[in-house]
Design goal:
alpha/beta
């Protein structure tokens, strides 16, 4: 990745990085981030920042003590902190003649394709204006992040944005140097992996979620897989490395690179890959996996062996192979309750099982996008 190649970049910042491990935002970290973003933007690179830190900023503003027990209290603190957070970014960007624009996004905003396209068009227009979008999960109305759901401290959101705006590069900044063969906090001698082509292969070595962070390496690996599947290079690196954003954007090898999948994706597949969810989906047998991956077929109920979570007809869900790996995403023709009733049955038995019929497939091939799987 070179500066000439990466013309549209997303930089994701987590709470641990922005606070330097304290209970307050670190002004020096914010100033460093904004300076680097400004340097890239003034050089013609379009930069979007996906940031955490709203709850922390709200706590500092009203003098509240840190708590993770009350989701309602944290939503209120997020509402206070969002204003404080974007004001800091905007004030710092103004020093360089740049403007910040706040974009608060929830899962529901992009579940429907129309909403997805609306968010995409808005972000692309902001970039055309030369503005720096400051994106965060809207915790005031969506509490999955505050409950510790699969959004993972905005990691999944950054992958969503990467697919939304066709980003060249996603930089996931962490408090560790990248992806290691083992958890470096447990094994100091663990070696850094400079290039990782199958991020899911390292899930077992990923450490646990930190005290302040809702993400951790597991969330970053899942986000990297989703973004790279959509055609975006991903770098996981230490946010404490001097000038890490400009150096990575300039092509310097820092942290771990997860190269983009070279598969050409149409706009509908990118929308499917961009979906935010909490792992809802269907578990498949090996025959169904082969039919989807090797033969390009639809998913029939006979190949479904299990149902995960709750979802409605028309929701975007994940499809899992027998090794517990998500291999595809798609729009379900049946709800989770209905899928549980027809799993393992022939398509001709759906009407008898349910009393109604939404089609012979649980997920039609035209509404499905495969994820790369490496053995």
């Amino acid at each position: 990745m070179t500066d000439a190649q990466a013309r549209r970049i997303i930089c994701k910042l987590g709470t641990n990085l922005l606070t330097s491990g304290t209970d307050r935002l670190d002004p020096a970290v914010l100033e460093s981030v904004v300076r680097q973003v400004a340097e890239l933007r003034l050089a013609g690179v379009q930069v979007t920042v996906v940031t955490s830190g709203a709850v922390t900023a709200g706590q500092a503003r009203v003098g509240a003590t840190r708590t993770r027990t009350s989701v309602g209290a944290r939503q209120a603190l997020a509402a206070i902190g969002q204003a404080q957070l974007v004001q800091r970014y905007d004030s710092l960007l103004q020093r360089y003649g740049l403007t910040a624009a706040q974009a608060l996004i929830t899962r529901g905003d992009v579940t429907e394709r129309r909403g997805y396209l609306n968010v995409r068009n808005t972000l692309l227009r902001l970039l055309q204006y030369g503005v720096v979008p400051i994106v965060n999960e809207n915790d005031v109305v969506a509490d999955e992040e505050l409950r510790g759901g699969a959004f993972g401290e905005n990691d999944a959101l950054s992958a969503l944005i990467a697919n939304l705006i066709d980003a060249d590069l996603l930089i996931l900044l962490s408090d560790v140097g990248g992806v290691y063969e083992q958890d470096p906090r447990v094994c100091p001698e663990a070696r850094l992996i400079p290039i990782l082509r199958d991020p899911m292969s390292m899930m077992g070595a990923a450490g646990d979620v930190g005290e302040r962070s809702r993400g951790g390496m597991r969330a970053k690996l899942e986000a990297a897989r989703r973004a790279s599947a959509g055609g975006t290079d991903v770098v996981i690196a230490s946010g404490r490395e001097p000038d890490v954003i400009t150096r990575v954007a300039g092509g310097e090898q820092l942290g771990t690179l997860i190269p983009a999948d070279t598969t050409v994706r149409d706009s509908r597949e990118r929308w499917l890959l961009a979906g935010l969810h909490n792992g809802e989906g269907l578990e498949l047998d090996s025959g169904a996996v082969q039919a989807l991956v090797e033969q390009g077929r639809s998913l029939l109920p006979a190949g479904v062996v299990g149902v995960r979570g709750e979802f409605e007809r028309g929701d975007v869900i994940q499809l899992y192979d027998p090794q517990n790996r998500p291999i595809a995403v798609g729009i379900s023709n049946y709800s989770s309750v209905e899928a549980a009733k027809i799993r393992g049955k022939k398509s001709s038995e759906i009407l008898d099982a349910l009393g109604y019929y939404y089609g012979s497939s649980v997920v039609h091939r035209n509404n499905l996008a495969l994820l790369p799987v490496t053995d």
